[in-house]
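can u pls check wat happens w/ flavin-adenine dinucleotide
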Amino acid sequence: MGRKTAVVLGGSVAGLCAAGVLARHFDEVIVLERDLLPQDAEHRRGVPQSKHPHFLLNSGRRAIGAIFPGFEEALIAAGGLHLMPSMDAAYCENDGWAPRKSGSMTMVYSSRMLIERVLRDKVRELPAIEIREGVTVTGLRSTGAGTTRGRVDGVEYRTAGDDEGYLAADLVVDALGRGSSVVDWLGAAGWSAPPEKTLDAKVTYTSRWYDLPRADRRPESWWWKHLVITPTQDTGDHPEEHEFLSNFFPIEGDRAIVCMGSWGIEMPRKADAFEAGADRVRAATFGRATRACTPASPVHLTRATGNKWRRFDLLDVPPVGLVCIGDSICAFNPFYAQGMSSAARSALILGELLGSRDTLGPAFVREFLDRQKKSLDVPWMLAMARDQAYDFATGSEVAAPWRRKLAARMSWPIFNAINATSREDAYVEQTFAKVFNLDKSLREMAADPRFWFGIVRYKVRQRLGRTVVPGGFDDQRDPPGTDFTGYTGPESASSAGTGRGGDRVDV
Ligand SMILES: Cc1cc2nc3c(=O)[nH]c(=O)nc-3n(C[C@H](O)[C@H](O)[C@H](O)COP(=O)(O)OP(=O)(O)OC[C@H]3O[C@@H](n4cnc5c(N)ncnc54)[C@H](O)[C@@H]3O)c2cc1C
């Protein structure tokens, strides 16, 4: 079958996941990574985004677990927090603090650098994989560019000591991230460039790391682990911080990353402005909690957040011997937390195909690209649904004015209605959890009559004052800790549990 050597370009999440699947199908897998990789969970130059919160969606967690059995357990053992967001997070939605209630979704929270460290530990257990650190990939070599017999044959690189080298490969996997030069290298060799779909909704993230106060020094009302404050839908005068999507994101080691993000608004990059901005976020608890913590980093700001999909699947003659995964093929606005999961899902597809196909020729490449496209359609559609609402967004996917208006008017209200309905309708809750976690597409959800019936029924009940769980609580007070699991109305108030230290809410 001629599967001797696979070379992976880049040793971050996508590259490590790819190496994990390739190790089952190639004699040797060589990962070329420009950085020197730390033994521990530390930031490094090639992954500046590690300073911002990284939410690992469930489909990604499962995909990584399928590639590296025991990944989730190892992440938790290393300090990752296994939480149920609907119980452990306080969400401030448009109607105020959402009621707390048991749900179907659990997540593991950690820093991005811990995820990568655990992945590296897993890769180092596999003898077929060699990671060459401090090696910069500088080019690709190929033959027969643009013809049906054309293929990528290997990779050029430069070592830290400035030695140039070449590695022949049966398969090259590009996992060089957003800034990958693979398309340029292919172009220089005579291959057509894949069409690019882009949409930059001018999202800016500003984040700062904090040490939490000791548990016994936190106020009684601090039952929550994670705070999420969504942008206001109020169209009147308000501070611009009310339009931020803000996260107080818990990570290992009793720390949190406080992150504010916005579509199109200039974000603070200095410490004083950061904390003053946190004070003006819609829910006062956000600023208060931030000030109760001890800063543990400078403020980090990033604008590298546009959606960008290089459509290799649309090429008449895609190069044989090359597969692109992770941000190098499709990078997303990070608000939707899709990047790592999409990368791991692509790696799984690659593994499945390597297991079922004997050769790596054009049919292999075409099937991989088709299946990868289907998989990437799911997160891409979600990202477009929101990002196409902004007049200032730029790129090939800017929507027609009427669609922009519709998206601007409808997307947050629909999101808020889904969340409210989810608290009374298990079907809607589970369906949306699947969409959020990329286990179901937006298209499937949109075509599901039971889902919409649930939303409409909730809205009608709301009009008639017959919903069961309260809609929301005053965002100027701390989020109530009352547990509404099993709550069937005011008469059942005593049967609903009370969250740790939570206010008993008058219902
Ligand atoms: C602000 C922000 C927040 C995010 N939040 C989330 C989130 O909540 N959830 C989520 O799933 N995703 C999130 N993402 C996306 C996520 O970071 C990426 O999707 C994920 O890291 C997968 O990336 P990758 O491995 O493809 O590329 P990267 O992580 O960018 O890694 C590329 C690797 O290639 C190496 N490299 C680059 N050039 C060369 C070269 N010439 N030679 C050798 N090596 C090279 C780099 O050193 C690096 O190791 C976020 C992104 C940003 C920017």
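The first strand starts at residue 5 and ends at 9.
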